Please model this.
Amino acid sequence: MIVIGSESRGSVPNTSPNVRDMAQVSCCQLDEEEFRKCCLQLLQRSEELRDGWSWQQPQGSEDGYLKKTTLRCVSVTSKRSKKNQQDSALLIDSDCRQNQSAHVSAAPEEATDDADDEDVADDADVPACSACESSFLQFEYHVVFSCSYSSPVLYFRAFTLEGRSLTLEEVWSSIHPNFRLHLQENPLNAVSQQEHPLLGQPFFLLHPCRTEEFMKPLLQMAQQHHRSVNYVLSWLSIIGPVVGLHVPLQYFSTVCVKDPASSSNPG
Amino acid sequence: MIMNNDKDVLRDVWFGRIPSCFTLNSDEVTEREAEPYYLMLPRVSYLTLVTDKVKKHFLKAMRTDEVEEMWFEYEGTPLKWHYPIGVLFDLHASASALPWSIIVHFKSFPDRDLLHCPTNSVIEAHFMSSIKEADVLKHKSQVVNDMQKKDHKQLWMGLQNDKFDQFWAMNRKLMEYSTEEGGFRYIPFRIYQTTGDKPFIQKLFRPVSPQGNPHTLCDLLKEMYPAALTNDGEQKRYQVLIHGIEPLLETPLQWLSEHLSHPDNFLHICIVPVPTD
Model:
């Protein structure tokens, strides 16, 4: 990496005081190569744990991302919208359970096809929820590298089993109240709808502009104790639970000792 | 570092307009015939920010219970409101005759393609998020973070109310850099093309080479999209458009970034096939 020199001490021109420290290199940032290494490690462990992470590479693109699809059972208070009786809005209270072994096809349109009887039957195998007012939602999580922020970004979208996309309001209601209050203080740092940078489709995301802030202490601590850290895994374990994505502890018990040479190469 | 004569460039960019004709999608249920609506669209703004009058006009002809979120289409392509209007036009319609003919929809919102835009605050959040990302690239976000809330508001209000002076009084801070650096840390740019899923190319690129030479538009394309360049003896296949014009490929990227960026502080570059008449 080339760092354009602003290191000449004392004589920084005062035309732009704000950029004085910009060449200072941070230990807490991730580059794309390191991102891929972390993803590779995560995928190897995921294969053993069978929790469904995969590496996706859009056609004709060198860039890729981590993807996982899960069914989440959420309890729901239905709020009939005035305009359209069919389209009841979901107000989601909390997670009742996360089904970790459900591998659902990524294309939710299938659920609305006429020939989807089999799919529905598959879904019926999923353990039923005890709460009476609850429903299954399909969550799709993507971990994409952002070169601007030098950090991973968590994109996600959610569908009902009928294939309807959740609105931003519904997504907010699916976030635990403890997180919600904190996130809503500053909309720019929170959940919003944006275009997926590799797919060009609407996704929700947790804004990455504060990532460095919460990763810094963690990485500095690890450095002090000479412990290696998988940036992506640690980051995901912090940020994932906000939107119902949990990283099992097993990921951390062996991840440092694993031999990184294996088949599923994200590169 | 903006020279006086370059200020005209900023004005020309800001006041760029596209004559447009909005017609109602023929499947919409109307109570009476809806006349087309003509409008000069500002290139640097967003569709959903400048079409209140379009909405009002067509709603007069509609039955209110048939109305859902408004969205726009051009020749079968849903138009992404979160791209600047000029980018949408250059990318999809630069070869077509004026006025730009846009179709207005009030139902079947394509939520697989378009972001929802229920209020102007969504546009504001998107706009500020772009400015912030651009400043991360240019100054490690130090300039935008040093600004106060009212400064951010001034940028947004400048765009929303089409106030060039109000906007640039604040935006010039985002365009500063030390003479020693010779430019920003990285150039915030996006290169759009219409083929493939990937909506645009965005990577890290410095305004100055390691040897200290200014990078040009040509250098950028060579690295990001070599197919856009014409080799000797070849026929030109692509146009490289910024604000509807083809800048000289020898233009320094830093200059382009300071003068031809959109208000969101990104340099939006469209690569489109050379029109065949």
Summary: Residues 1-26, 78-88, 93-132, 257-264 of chain A have pLDDT under 50 and may be disordered. Chain A has seven helices and seven strands. The two ends of chain A are 20 Å apart (CA to CA). The CA atoms of residues 142 and 206 of chain A lie 11 Å apart.
